[in-house]
Amino acid sequence: MMVAMALPPDDYHKMPSDLGGVRELQDVLQSRLEKARAATVCVQMGANSGTGVVVSPDGLVLSAAHVVTGVSRRVDLLFEDGTVLEAHSLGLNADNDAAMLQIVDPPEGLAYVDLWKADADEWAPKTVMGTWVFALGHSGGFDETRGAVLRLGRVLRMAKDTIETDCSLIGGDSGGPLFNLDGQLIAIHSRVGRRVVKNMHVPVTAFTRDWSTLKSGEFMGDGPFAEVETIEEKVLGASLYESKTEVVVTAGFAIDGDGRPRLEAGDTIMSIGGAEVSKLEQIREFLNARSESFELGVMRGEEEMTFKVDETESE
């Protein structure tokens, strides 16, 4: 195992002045690589792929929202050694391009990296303009013979929810990790620039600030990096779709005995059988278990309405 030469942390932003300085930088970088590469994964969703990184022994993975694109999605994670593990997407923030996933059955001894920890609105003194950083990513997709691609670069600019570096990134690197020379994860690759040496990353503080919300599986924000995934199907004699917070009628009316429409397009389903609902799955489970008539609570504009549904009408 390679041991890093003594490059003081205060020199993590300095340009080497001679060959010895270059070797010191090289040795520090190489001493961090084994752990970082083992935890960097290719996020595979059908024909599309990006990158992510494992950040906990119980299988939490960070990536970019535009890679994951939605919550509660199944993905395959491909590790450098060829291991493939199933994961599900948890929450994401469509405003700042942050996303979290969970490995379904994390193995014992799972490789993971340490997060750089700081107050949400502060940067460590070592992370300054010109700081040396390194990026990993599955450029162009997974290649077991090559593994994750390494790039060394420097911090060009920093803002609350953005780091800009000159690490050379291309398609497929999105969602991958950006490390400081201590081997700590400081950001996730977000926007790959038209110029390969001009790229944006989501700082880890954007994840830690919303950690519990991301872990709970919530879709946050209305930004450009992901759209709310809707599910639509025929239930209760009407077409319903599920957004991130509610179930709404889109078309197809259930007609009661005197020919009047019961459900109208734009109605929001608030409750069924007296229980509040926000997911189609809750409605399906209730209908599968019921044995008699029930009440359906609906919000139409600002008016709350209650319908009694007979067993035959709910088919």
Q: How is the main sheet built?
A: 7 strands, antiparallel
N- and C-termini, Cα separation:
66 Å
Q: What would you call the shape?
A: elongated
Mean pLDDT: 82
Structural class, judged by helices and strands? Answer: alpha+beta
Order of helices and strands: HEEEHEEEEEEEEEHHEEEEEEHEE
Kindly provide the name of the CATH class of the largest domain: Mainly Beta
Rg of Cα set: 25 Å
Structure description:
The chain contains 5 helices and 20 strands. By secondary structure, it is α+β, with helices and mostly antiparallel strands. The chain has 2 domains: 9-220, Thrombin, subunit H; 231-314, Pdz3 Domain (Roll). Strands 14, 15, 16, 17, 18, 19 and 20 form a 7-stranded antiparallel β-sheet that branches. It has a 6-stranded antiparallel beta barrel with strand order 1-2-3-6-5-4. The termini are far apart. The model is unreliable at 1-6 and 119-126 (pLDDT under 50).
Please sum up the structure shown.
The chain is of the alpha+beta class and 315 residues long. The protein has helices at 19-39, 65-68, 204-209, 211-215, 280-289; strands at residues 40-45, 48-54, 60-64, 74-78, 84-93, 98-103, 132-137, 149-159, 162-165, 177-180, 185-192, 199-203, 219-220, 231-235, 238-242, 247-251, 268-272, 275-276, 294-300, 303-309.
